[in-house]
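Data card: per-record layout.
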Amino acid sequence: MLSVIEWADLSFQLTPVFASISERLILASYFSINLIVGSAIGLLVGLFALSAAFLKRHFQSALARGTSPRAPHKLIAGIGVSALFAVLLTLQPQIHGYSVTLLREAEKFPHLGRPLTAAEPELSYFVVMGLFIGCSIIWTLARESGLWSPFLRRAWLLGLLVIIGAAYYVDSRVEVQQYEYSLHRSMFLLATALAMALVASIFSSPAAARLAFAGRGSLLKVILSAIVAVLLAAVAFTFARFDNNQNLKTQVFYRTTQTKQYFKLAQWALDFDRDGYSPYLGGGDRDDSRADINPGVTDIAADGIDNNCIGGDLTEQGIEDWQRQFTTLHGASNPARPLNVIFFFIDTLRADHLGAYGYNRNTSPNIDKLAAQSSVFQNAYSPSPYTYEAAPKFMQSTYWDAHNETWTEALARNGYNTILFPRRLSMLLRHVKGMEQTVDASKYSEAFRRIVPSARTFMFPILTVLTSPTQGLTSGHRLSIATTVKSPTPTIIWADCLTGWNRAAASTTRWL
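The structure for this 512-residue chain is written out next.
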């Protein structure tokens, strides 16, 4: 059902993208993965549900000691089984990572950041346990709905349809390509769980079950056999030809909601060496029998093996050419004494709402004054619209997960005093490495507006004369402003600001 909805939606949305009718048909064949993986998920969920129900029955019987189980026995047994399954599910890295991602989204709230960060490993189990209990409640209601009155049953089915539609709308229309591992994965799980509950509710009625399995004549068998044959042919075509059309491959992973999740699940299931990359469906692994060969490893020069599965084996000459180009581009032609740097990191600020970039309202007078004397970059792009993915790449000056030394670590290694003024302490300390001092601005009242004043007060004994700014101002998902200052010792000051989420936050640029 969800696959049909998404296919119809994308067929309309991607009309300008399709080069021919054949591309529409090819994309439709990719949706066969949804049916295969969805069926596998349904089977696994059914096995989990039956196992949990079996354990719960025996557990509550043991607690009742031969008598009829009462409500407290059932409650304790349910919590115990949920805790057991939460521990088992959390052992799976992907499930554990999802629960941690939900916690880190909650850590963005100023008063929740510190306690959640401190108890993150323990709380991740409770998150999974809560999800398991929620799914158990939905499963129980779906099974019992067949015994309800017609009015209550129709209201239940209508409610499921409305929530499924709302989940799909949020997944496909809200913060697209952002919060992939929190908001969108949650909407996918919600829509999938409720779709299963809808099907189970429909067939929970004895009359509906009899109608579904009655009258299976030879014609119906022929039709079902033809559908299965077409489905298997589409699956075989998808596995064989998915990497051949990069346009459609991009649409699957960046424009779909349900389909990309099913593809990722298929890649995970078909990653037999468990290195995080599959040789199928665009996973990029060219040798799935060796975990040390995949697109995420560093290529070893002149070993005769394409370790990272990109562009063949790396040669010593290739390394020398790259180092020569890198030195030419980044080497200082006229080295001078180290200068101090003030760096403002403004998250979620739109460049097209700044006067420096042509906005007609006076939203950023101070930034505009700075830009008038500075180098302004018109074509700077974030490596990702998602903060947790963009921040490490930004700090490493790369567009991929290179795991390089951050530029703040390089400055610290070269004798700089490094001071961090974060508002979101838990997030920034993961990515802004090499900072010797940390001043948590969230402890001040009105922390949103206190970051720059607190930084100014802290820096006053150090910074004496502010010179004309010489460089800085990048645009894109985040705007950064850098200016040099005179000081007896080399120092870098990092101040984190957050804006763009509400109307009150729009005035941030006025006091910067």
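Known properties of this structure: The mean pLDDT is 78. Residues 32-64 form the longest helix (33 residues).

See the next section for split statistics.
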